[in-house]
Design a protein that fits this description.
Helices cover 47% and strands 27% of the residues. The mean pLDDT is 87. The chain starts with a helix and ends with a strand. With 129 residues, the protein is α+β, with helices and mostly antiparallel strands.
Length: 129
């Protein structure tokens, strides 16, 4: 009975050094991706919320495209989003509705000469009061 107990203990070994190194590299790579790409998605969420909050703004139907773009830029500056340029926002007016298109890309250096490109595209149709 004791011999079975000892033989089962010798078969129970932990992870090898190679396995641990591979796991560290894998999870380190995932962490690096999260740290590098996460802020772009957080900024995109903030941009979406800033543009969506304009819907129902009083006087929106009387504003021109430049005024709507300026209103969006002011909200983005308050939220500390500086990656979006004015030319990335397109505003088309037809009657009381405004079609706002936001299309931009974020480029990040992942490591050495490996870069990431994230492309965002949103469209909003809004009417003012």
């Amino acid at each position: 009975m004791k011999q079975n107990s000892l033989s089962s203990m010798t078969r129970q070994t932990g992870a090898s050094a190679l396995t641990i190194m591979i796991m560290v590299l894998f999870f380190g790579g995932l962490l690096t991706l999260g740290i590098k790409l996460g802020p772009a998605y957080v900024d995109d969420k903030t941009i979406s919320e800033a543009v969506a909050s304009i819907d129902g703004t009083e006087g929106l139907s009387n504003m021109g495209p430049a005024q709507i773009r300026s209103l969006i830029n002011k909200r983005l500056i308050v939220n500390n989003v500086r990656s979006l340029k004015a030319e990335d926002i397109t505003v088309e007016k037809s009657g009381n509705t405004a079609l706002i298109k936001v299309e931009y890309e974020v480029r990040n250096n992942l490591f050495r000469n490996v870069d990431t490109i994230i492309h965002f595209k949103h469209e909003y149709e809004m009417t003012g009061k």
